[in-house]
Design goal:
The protein is built from 16 helices and 26 strands. It is α/β, with parallel strands linked by helices and 537 residues long. The chain has three domains: 6-13 and 22-179, 3-Layer(aba) Sandwich (Rossmann fold); 225-430, Rossmann fold; 436-532, GMP Synthetase, Chain A, domain 3. The strands form six sheets. Strands 3-2-11-10-12-13-14-15-16 form a nine-stranded mixed β-sheet, with helices on both faces. The protein has a five-stranded antiparallel β-sheet with strand order 1-17-18-20-21, with no helix packed on it. The protein has a four-stranded parallel β-sheet with strand order 5-4-6-7, sandwiched between helices. Helix 12 (309-319) links the parallel strand 13 (299-302) and strand 14. Helix 5 (115-125) runs parallel beside helix 6 (137-146), helix 8 packs across helix 9 and helix 11 (277-284) packs across helix 12. The longest helix is centred in the first third of the chain and has 17 residues, at 57-73. It is globular, with a radius of gyration of 23 Å. It starts with a strand and ends in a 5-residue tail after the last helix. Residues 6-25 have low confidence and may be disordered. It binds malonyl-coenzyme A and adenosine monophosphate. Adenosine monophosphate (AMP) binds at residues 190, 234-235, 303-306, 325, 327-330, 357, 414-416, 428, 431, 437, 442.
Length: 537
């Protein structure tokens, strides 16, 4: 087992215990920690958008107070979920922060999700409040009211909508709702509309402890400026990026959508960038990506999907910077990271190594296990299991699923397969879960297959992930027709587009006579993957 961080000395322990008794009385609301890190000059710029808007720290404080006051004025039951199906905007971030501030539970929903997907999440989470784009109000409110939601507000990217209209009537001071470490802060769905799609329950303590560890581990410093170019529906853009900047009192350059040239144009005023591998691949395709263009940058961080070694190397060759790759998931926030600094005491551990995800973060225990959860030796490949203050409390209203994913001694089975090498670096070599990660978004084959199998003329299907130069991995659907039927690949794709988020649509579909099967009759997806391996290369 690998334990992140150093063991505590006797003296440090004493301080820790004294500190602990004080902390039990203290404010544990994550928002309070973020707010406490705002710079003393509240008139400085906290966020600058790619459309030229400036928000001061005072603006963030006042806006979150007003939205928090609005939420509290609704007299919602304790623990109410506030679901957001809103495009990326600073106001959407304010809604997230205000939800924390008021002590409710935030539920982010990707705006790519269509009605069946939203219906599942809203039906499962039963949010008291849903906020959506005004153009979607008709269908979203119908779903929400059916699920028992009391209030549906609108919020658009141009700072309009009923949420802000109503919040404008509130006062701009607000006392942060007291919360304990174990209190729920957010529910993040892993994906899909099938019964297997699970809401990971993250507490204030999970999120705050992880953010605090990363602040130190990644050497956040005074003057840092983050380019925020990721969506804010998922852990990477919502927690890692936003908490990182706010907890350091750092300005964010806020991009509504990732555009490589816009990112390059803003790089000269920034120091930190976070992206999924596709963002790095697309930046590398820009001739403007040079050492000069990245001169002011201190740190490039990648994660959410495997970063190819060739991307890692090319980045260094072009910019002189070494990408720091880290590993995490919705259920755990961040787990491991390559090192930021060269630490003379651990010289061999100071290198950022491509194709590895570095070391367990301080406080995280990580082990590689084989059959029956038996721990494996160094270098052996098995299931990655983790434990720590960042690991979620369980799946929303799914105690049996939660129990299935935890070992008897409290380790969470990540579903990732990997090893720890002789130097202690963690390598991810595959996944035991049937999952495709495309451009940093998760696609569950079983969900897509379920939709395809419902289409006219389809007997059966298999979705497999194959390498893709831009998205890293994409889905290929292999379909078997019902006897006498002749379903067309183009019609299948068109039908899926009507029902599913765009990133889940297979990039290729073929109708074949039969699927390869093993002696037990199970489809051999490894053979299909091998067959279509070179489709996009
Ligand atoms: C868009 N498309 C995708 C896709 N994104 N297809 C597969 N995978 C994706 N990720 C589709 C579009 O619908 C479109 O289809 C076509 O591909 C081209 O679209 P595009 O204009 O190039 O896409 P774009 O809007 O630029 O989006 C690409 C992207 C985006 C890479 C910027 O997908 C993105 O922001 N990804 C980041 C996801 C993320 O934040 N993951 C973090 C999860 S947290 P058509 O047919 O309509 O033309 C996590 C934990 C952790 O994993 O460790 O961090
Ligand atoms: P999600 O459920 O969207 O949070 O996705 C989490 C999954 O993304 C993990 O279980 C991993 O499979 C994958 N992942 C995250 N970071 C990395 C990384 N650096 N390398 C490989 N896979 C990663």
């Amino acid at each position: 087992m690998v334990q992140g961080g150093q063991s505590l000395g006797r003296q440090t322990r004493l301080i820790f215990y004294l500190g602990f008794s004080f902390r039990t009385m203290a404010q544990h609301n994550l928002f309070a920690a973020l707010r406490a890190a705002f710079p003393s000059d509240l008139d400085g710029t906290a966020v600058e958008t790619d459309t030229g808007l400036l928000y001061s720290w005072r603006d963030l404080d006042r806006a979150t107070a007003m939205v928090a006051n609005l939420l509290q004025s609704l007299d919602l039951p304790a623990g109410s979920r506030i679901a957001a199906h809103t495009e990326k905007s600073v106001e959407a971030m304010v809604l997230y922060l205000a939800t924390l501030r008021a002590g409710y539970v935030y539920l982010p929903l990707n705006t790519a999700y269509q009605s069946a997907e939203v219906e599942y999440f809203v039906g499962n989470a039963e949010p008291a409040v849903v906020v959506c784009a005004s153009r979607n109000f008709g269908w979203v409110s119908k779903i929400a009211f059916k699920a028992g939601t009391q209030y549906v507000f609108t919020l658009d990217e141009d700072r309009t909508g009923s949420l802000l209209d109503r919040a404008a009537q509130q006062i701009d001071v607000h006392t942060v709702a007291p919360r304990q470490d174990d209190d729920l802060a957010a529910i993040v769905y892993t994906s899909g509309t099938t019964g297997r799609s699970k809401g990971a329950m993250l507490s204030h303590g999970n999120l705050r402890s992880n953010a605090e560890v990363l602040k130190d581990y990644w050497g956040w410093q005074k003057g840092d400026v983050l380019i925020h170019a990721l969506p804010i529906f998922h852990v990477h853009g919502l927690f890692v990026a936003i908490h990182g900047a706010l907890l350091n009192g750092s300005k964010m350059v806020w991009m509504g959508k990732f555009e490589p040239r816009a990112v390059l144009a803003h790089m000269a005023q920034a120091t930190v960038f976070m992206g999924v591998p596709t963002l790095y691949v697309r930046l590398l395709a820009e001739p403007g990506l040079t050492a000069e263009a990245t001169r002011t940058m201190r740190l490039f961080i990648a994660g959410s999907a495997p970063l190819l070694l060739e991307t890692f190397k090319e980045w260094t060759a072009r910019t002189g910077h070494t990408i720091l790759e880290r590993y995490g998931m919705s259920e755990t926030v961040m787990l491991t990271s390559n090192p930021y600094t060269a630490d003379a005491r651990f010289e061999y551990q100071s290198e950022r190594r491509g194709a590895t995800v570095g070391f367990p973060l301080p406080g995280v225990s990580l082990r590689v296990a084989g059959e029956g959860d038996a721990p494996l030796a160094e270098g052996e490949i098995g299931g990655i299991q983790v434990r720590g203050p960042n690991v979620f409390a369980g799946y929303w209203r799914m105690p049996e699923k939660t129990a299935e994913e935890f070992t008897a001694d409290g380790f969470f089975r990540t579903g990732d397969v990997g090893k720890v090498d002789a130097r202690g670096y963690v390598h991810i070599v595959g996944r035991s879960k049937d999952l495709i990660i495309s451009g940093g978004y998760n696609v569950y084959p079983a969900e897509i297959e379920g939709y395809i199998n419902e289409l006219p003329g389809v007997a059966e299907s298999a979705l497999v992930g194959v390498p893709h130069p831009d998205f890293g991995e994409v889905g290929v659907a292999v379909v078997i027709a019902k006897p006498g039927a002749d379903p067309q690949a183009s019609a299948i794709m068109a039908a899926l587009k009507q029902q599913l988020a765009n990133f889940k649509i297979p990039k290729h579909c073929v109708v074949v006579a039969e699927l390869p099967r093993n002696a037990m009759g199970k489809v051999q997806k490894n053979l299909l993957r091998a067959q279509y391996q070179a489709l996009f290369s």
